Amino acid sequence: MTSIFVGEENTIIGAGIGGTATAHFLRQHFGPEVRIDVFEKGTVGGRLATVTVNQQDYESGGSIIHSLNLHMQDFVKQLGLKYRKSVAGKTAVFNGKEFILEETDWYLLDLFRLWWRYGISFIRLQMWVEEIMEKFMRIYKYQAHGYAFSSVEELLLSLGGSGFLNMTRRSLSESLLELGVSQRFIDEVIAPIMRVNYGQNISIPAFVGAVSLAGAQANLWAVEGGNKLVCSGLLKLAKANLIQAQVITISLESAGESYQYEVTYTTQTEKASDLYDIVVVATPLQQNVNSGISFQGFEPQLPEIAGSYHQTVASIIHGYLNCSYFSFPDPKLFPFASILTTDTLGLFFNSAASVCPVNISAGFRRKQPQEAGVYKVFSPKPLEKHELKTLFKSYYSVQVTEWQAYPHYGSAQDLPPVVMHDNLYHLNGIEWAGSAMEMSSVAAKNIALLAYHRWNRQLEMIDQKDLMHKIKTEL
Ligand SMILES: Cc1cc2nc3c(=O)[nH]c(=O)nc-3n(C[C@H](O)[C@H](O)[C@H](O)COP(=O)(O)OP(=O)(O)OC[C@H]3O[C@@H](n4cnc5c(N)ncnc54)[C@H](O)[C@@H]3O)c2cc1C
Ligand SMILES: CC(C)=CCC/C(C)=C/CC/C(C)=C/CSC[C@H](N)C(=O)O
């Protein structure tokens, strides 16, 4: 059979996990003949990146993956990469003066302490997250059956009904209080988790709150060698052309009844442009992220994308932790690998954790605080010298990455559109429901399916209702 797609040209702007996964899924759906160009102005991987300390690499951006993140799991398998399990380490919560919660070596003792301090809040929370994860997992079935959604709202509705959609509109604290979780538990456990994962507080929407809580469960992993290997691997697997250039304009070029998108870009040496049938923008378009892309020739003009991204600074520090600051004068007795913090006025860091390199050899062990180790500190602003001196007795190196990390979440925000124009799509709207590697991967698969069905006028595969039932009755 002759492919009807010969001559069709797709382009993706951004080679993070979202863009490279889109290239992979477009190739799966549109077949071997189409041309797929991926533009990247920085480095492949985007917010998946590493920094080198003492000849070892450490994740400075997206680092952990949930065991039920099936797209990420599938990429790793297809690319022949290896899993790297998190190395266990104890966590404590610091309120600026003292530790208010300390993990011990004894699981039963920890359970008892939780129950003593917070009643059954932690069981309620566990059940809530499990239920949300179970519903979220429906996406894999829908996508395996080829169904696509024209908006993030439609996708969420199909997974968890209006309950899911409402979770993007009301705050986490409100939802948890309604569930019967105590205010004390919210302040002392939930808030620290939101601070380490999204650098924000408990007024973030409940849906992203649940994603963040899933990211605090025990069953987490990463990619041996660095998570960004998935991005370079997917580009190769997709046989996509990587163009190292910054896209500056996307304009609509009409020719009679039909039209294409003209993408203009600058490389280090030249300015050039190319025409495409389908364009996927796989980078945030909010003003403070500075993609540098302008849209021209659209009538009416494309609406401005609202909102802004939240700055999180990741400092990778090689040095000696100042255990005295945490009231442990003898570092040999300091048992914690991760320090989370409560939402306390004036506290200058969100979290500090001893980190493992992306290549863990068989005999790897975490450094004890009396030895020089590598730590990751998340903070809202770059750490001042006196702040570094507070957290570390001394240090050899500090590497700072200032991320426009994830959406700055408010609770009454509309989710940005997926379809910007007939064959022009935007991937990163999904981050406003929740920002994680798997969320970008789910959005990538959805856009590949959506683009395919819209191109082929298979509208019955888009925004179908009652999919659980439909799938059960499909052969
Ligand atoms: C510090 C930090 C920690 C995180 N931790 C986790 C975690 O543990 N687990 C998890 O699941 N998620 C985590 N995340 C979130 C996760 O990293 C992101 O959700 C995900 O990587 C987003 O991928 P993306 O491809 O959608 O966007 P990006 O990775 O931002 O990719 C967009 C790409 O587009 C390129 N680009 C932009 N404009 C242009 C242009 N005009 N022309 C050409 N190229 C352009 C950019 O250079 C970039 O490479 C973390 C994020 C940060 C910042
Ligand atoms: C998408 C679903 C259902 C689950 C994803 C859960 C997950 C892995 C969430 C992580 C979210 C996130 C932005 C974490 C940032 S910090 C990560 C880590 N603590 C670090 O120190 O780097």
TrEMBL record:
UniProt source species: Electrophorus voltai
Cofactor: FAD
Protein name in UniProt: Prenylcysteine lyase domain-containing protein
GO biological process, one term: prenylated protein catabolic process
Keywords from the UniProt entry: FAD, Flavoprotein, Glycoprotein, Oxidoreductase, Signal
This protein's record includes keyword Transcription regulation: no
Family per similarity comment: Belongs to the prenylcysteine oxidase family.
Gene Ontology molecular function terms on file: prenylcysteine oxidase activity
Prenylcysteine lyase domain location: 101-464
InterPro entries, per the entry: FAD/NAD-bd_sf, Prenylcys_lyase, Prenylcysteine_Oxase1
Keyword set includes Cell inner membrane: no
